[in-house]
Amino acid sequence: MDEGTKSVLQKIPLLRTNAGPRDAEGWNRRLKEELLAVIKYVSNNKEQDRDWFFIQPDEKGIKWSGKCWYYLDQVRYEFELEFEIPATYPTTAPELKLPELDGKTAKMYRGGKICQTVHFQPLWARNAPHFGIAHALAMGLGPWLAAEIPDMVQRGVISSFAK
Amino acid sequence: MEELTDELRASFDKVLSTLNTQAREKTESLVRSLKASLDALTDSAKAREKIDQMSSEVTADNPYSRLMALKRMGIVEDYEKIRECSIAVVGIGGVGSVAAEMLTRCGIGKLILFDYDKVELANMNRLFFRPEQSGLSKVEAAKETLVEINPDVQFETYNYDITSMESFSHFCGRLKEGALDGGQLDLVLSCVDNYGARMAINSACNEIGQTWMESGVSENAVSGHIQLMVPGKLACFSCAPPLVVASEIDERTLKREGVCAASLPTTMGIVAGLLVQNVLKHLLNFGQVSECLGYNAMKDFFSLMVLQPNPSCSDSWCLKQQELFAQKVKAEEKNRAEIGSGEVEEDLPLHAENEWNIVVEDDPVESAGQKSELNEAKHKPAEGLKFEFEPAKSSVNNDELVAGSEKDIGELMSQLDQLK
Ligand SMILES: [Zn+2]
């Protein structure tokens, strides 16, 4: 993993509660921690003028949706972002989806699930249950956008997402 | 006068052409429906009737004669037992679809198929699915083909993602009550392609004490593995990092530009074959069932090993199953002592006669990358195998953890909303 991502990760607080959505009571505590960690991460980004996503959960904290964006040559490319907390969370990470980009890149599974690098899964597993949603975004989606957006822009397949 | 004739002729032509079109359409539709009835008739003539009892009679129209010959040859004692067996196949891709076809042809009693995906033309480098099935759900397309191959098999299909909160409890329920007799399945086969889905199967199986077999093909398509999981008795998928075949190709330098994963029909077919072979041995009691088998396609090298459960496994249900298994072993030992019989049935996964490549390593071996936790669990991969990644960190610093907050979830959600 690159040094930039590493230092971003280190500034996101780790979570305490080892509970997933199948454990109603534990999940309440965990969800609170998730929200605190995401708030901290977004605030960090804003402070450094590196804001790049926005997400909001549904009532139960299972389905999350929002937007993420990436600047290339002063053009902002913006996409819908969504994911679901799996039944085995936090042992396994959520699968991040950019549904609008489905079919536009080979680095994606059907439905717009992004294809993670070989580093993602081991790092998540090693840090389970302390890594949460904010970490998944920082080490999964951030690097993915940085690698794939320039390529897609060059191929001319995402000009309609320019804002 | 002439004008009038022309006008009459024109309208006559018009009527005639309309009638012609109508007649043609009618004839065409008649031909279509006749052809459909004819197809249905030939289909029903081709499809075979259900067979009540497996026969060993060697005739051209007995689909089971060559399987029942296993009995005559003394390989299998009771082949018909397979008809009472119920199996779930999770993931109907390059491995799962082929495994399901093998089991169908073997005359398995019941198959429950799970997959959320659709058939795509991009799947055509693998076996089983046909191009004209593109767009159908994998489970539906698979059932369509399999029912024709063997109408004796019962099928149940679910087109959903087992890892999602919406489907997970239903999935557990089908494992628990999906068998032919309404009870728990005999076996669950994991033919999925990702860690999350494997972990979901692992959780479900630990919770209900379900024996399962895991299978996998590497992303570079040149190695694969199968692993038997008996909750409490053998390591579960959480007991240690996933075992994968060690190859000289460094995963970290593997060229992955422009693709997520490669796949070969050969490797997938071989892994499906190894998996179902193990299933048959397990269900029909013949040969030696492999606990963990790795296949390196580059060298045609096979590794075999046993992985003991980890007493500090992160899955609490695994720990409960380990306790139950220890109690069972104790009770059996006591029983044996009381009976005083000299013949003991070995229930522990240890193999006395190691032939080739079988390494059952009990001594912890120090390795720089591996944490002591793993060594404590007496885990060491056999030659040709390795753990996919290092085990979990044992502890984190308190100051790295998220600080408490007086706010409730609703307040935090609106705080997040304001950061838009
Ligand atoms: Zn375990």
Q: Whole-number radius of gyration of chain B? A: 29 Å
The kinds of small molecule bound in this structure are:
zinc ion
What's the quaternary structure here?
heterodimer
CATH architecture of chain A: Roll
- Compute the number of helices of chain B: 10
Order of helices and strands of chain B: HHEHEHEHEHEEEHEEHHEH
Overall pLDDT confidence of chain B: 86
Q: Helix share of residues of chain A?
A: 25-40%
Terminal CA distance of chain B reads 83 Å
Query: What is the fold-level CATH name, i.e. the topology of chain A?
Result: Ubiquitin Conjugating Enzyme
Structural class of chain B: alpha/beta
Sum up the structure in keywords.
heterodimer, A: 163 residues, alpha+beta, Ubiquitin Conjugating Enzyme, 3-stranded antiparallel beta sheet, two-stranded antiparallel ribbon, 4 helices, 5 strands, 39% helix, globular, B: 420 residues, alpha/beta, 8-stranded mixed beta sheet, two-stranded antiparallel sheet, 10 helices, 10 strands, 11% strand, extended, binds zinc ion
Characterize this entry briefly.
The complex is a heterodimer of chains A (about 160) and B (about 425). Chain A has about 160 residues and is α+β, with helices and mostly antiparallel strands.
Structure explained in plain terms:
The complex is a heterodimer of chains A (163) and B (420). By secondary structure, chain A is of the alpha+beta class. Chain A is 39% helix and 18% strand. Chain A contains 4 helices and 5 strands. In chain A, strands 1-2-3 form a 3-stranded antiparallel sheet, covered by helices on one side. A two-stranded antiparallel ribbon of chain A has the order 4-5. In chain A, helix 1 runs antiparallel to helix 4. The two termini of chain A are 30 Å apart. With 420 residues, chain B is of the alpha/beta class. In chain B, the strands form 2 sheets. In chain B, strands 3-2-1-4-5-6-8-9 form an 8-stranded mixed sheet, with helices on both faces. A two-stranded antiparallel sheet of chain B has the order 7-10. The interface between A and B is large, with 50 and 45 residues. Chain B: Belongs to the ubiquitin-activating E1 family. UBA5 subfamily. Chain B: It holds the Pfam family ThiF. Chain B: Keywords: ATP-binding, Metal-binding, Nucleotide-binding, Ubl conjugation pathway, Zinc.
